[in-house]
Amino acid sequence: MFKNLERHRMGLYEKALPNELSWEEKIAKAKALGFDFLEISVDESDERRARLDWSDEEIYGLRRLCEQYELPLQSMCLSAHRKFPFGSADPAIREQAVIHMEKAITLAYKLGVRNIQLAGYDVYYEPANQETHERFIDGMRFCAKLAERAGIMLSVEIMDTDYLNSLSKFEVLNRAVNSPFFTAYPDVGNINGWNYDTCTELALSAPHITQIHLKDTYKVKEGYKGQFRDLVIGEGEVDFDAIFKTIKKTELVVPMVIEMWAQDEKWEENIVTAQNRLNIACMGADLPTLFPALT
């Protein structure tokens, strides 16, 4: 099968680029680095949540920039629900969760975003229990219906907390929601960080995976909380060689996104380092390399 397919489509997480860059600068840089798309972030900060209230002029202006550079915003990382979760005991917070979801669907539809990544938290800043879990499931059923109506895929991220830290847990959740527009967005770093067998997990849920985050982590151990962010790919404990062999074996051809963060002036060097390391892993799996040779 893979002999007749080109390389995987590769995206870059917006936060891997400095926040002070304009949208045109972000798009141009991602294009120059050999990416196929950007993943826009709508997180819990006031600055990024304000994107949900962009005017049509702002939305379509950004879309025209993407068309100009031939680099779309294919996916959206919608982590604003960490602050406004569907599982909250507070009805006002749950109402905000609904509003955020409705606005995100509208924004995605207008921008041409195909896939919205949802945060797999029932709650984050309040105690979790069976009731928060059940409210979360109800919320996901509602979200799935919104997505079905718009024709936009929802993908739940496998997270850095133990509530939804494996694809095995997603499969249970998936049966409860039961929608073709409700799928999985595994973060291989998070799965690895919680000491699951990442390759077995990917093989288990391959039919339900619509996008993959490539991120490195250190594993949770006794007396150590692990490290789930701010690592350059290749610095942590994720076995990317084995992951790409599994991707080939399971014939997973979904888009993938490099998830890193621009923490210092070496951000571009760090992206190129990650790209080169992922290329090596692809070659080891006899897959087409993801990026042109960069130095």
The main pleated sheet reads as: 8 strands, parallel
Q: Proportion of β residues?
A: 5-15%
Order of strands, widest sheet: 6-5-4-3-2-1-8-7
Which stretches are low in confidence, meaning pLDDT under 50 for 5 or more residues running? none
Helical residues, percent = 40-55%
Helix and strand string, N-terminal first?
EHEHHEHEHEHEHHEHEH
Net shape:
globular
**Count, helices:** 10
Could you tell me the number of beta strands?
Answer: 8
- Overall structural class, as computed from helix and strand content, comes to alpha/beta
Summarize it.
With 295 residues, the protein is α/β, with parallel strands linked by helices.
Characterise the protein shown here.
- The protein has about 300 residues and is α/β, with parallel strands linked by helices.
- Helix content is about 40%, strand content about 10%.
- The chain is built from 10 helices and 8 strands.
- Strands 6-5-4-3-2-1-8-7 form an 8-stranded parallel beta sheet.
- β1, α1 (about 25-30) and β2 form a beta-alpha-beta unit.
- The chain is globular and about 50 Å long.
SSE arrangement:
Blueprint: E1 10-13, H1 23-32, E2 37-42, H2 46-49, H3 56-69, E3 73-78, H4 91-111, E4 115-118, H5 130-150, E5 153-157, H6 167-177, E6 182-185, H7 188-193, H8 198-205, E7 212-214, H9 240-249, E8 256-258, H10 267-284
Parallel strand pairs: 1-2, 1-8, 2-3, 3-4, 4-5, 5-6, 7-8
Helix pairs in contact: 1-3, 4-5, 6-8, 8-9, 9-10
